[in-house]
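RECORD TYPE: inverse folding
INPUT: structure tokens
STRUCTURE:
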């Protein structure tokens, strides 16, 4: 694994085609898939097992209760999946 801190992740969001409406605070590339924001590790592992034609998994915004945003309260959020044609859908809902 190679970790590379960069000053501006927007370059990578554009390069990997993350739709503006699905962007968040962190961007990673894992085995060719884009992981955007606070995506639970289990969903990344599922994506790597399934090997879909998707471009990646974003969790838009910074939802309270998502990994790294733990709190005494949490809000419902969705991990999305997006494809090259700009199409996206819910991959997993958390409540």
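DESIGNED SEQUENCE:
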């Amino acid at each position: 694994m190679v970790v590379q801190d960069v000053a501006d992740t927007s370059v990578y969001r554009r390069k990997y085609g993350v739709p503006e409406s699905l962007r968040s605070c962190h961007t990673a590339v894992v085995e060719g898939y884009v992981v955007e924001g606070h995506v639970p590790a289990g969903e990344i592992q599922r994506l790597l097992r399934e090997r879909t034609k998707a471009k990646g998994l974003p969790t838009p915004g910074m939802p309270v209760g998502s990994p790294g945003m733990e709190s005494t309260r949490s809000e419902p959020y969705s991990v999305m999946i997006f494809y090259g044609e700009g199409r996206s859908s819910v991959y997993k809902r958390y409540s």
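NOTES: The chain has two helices and five strands.
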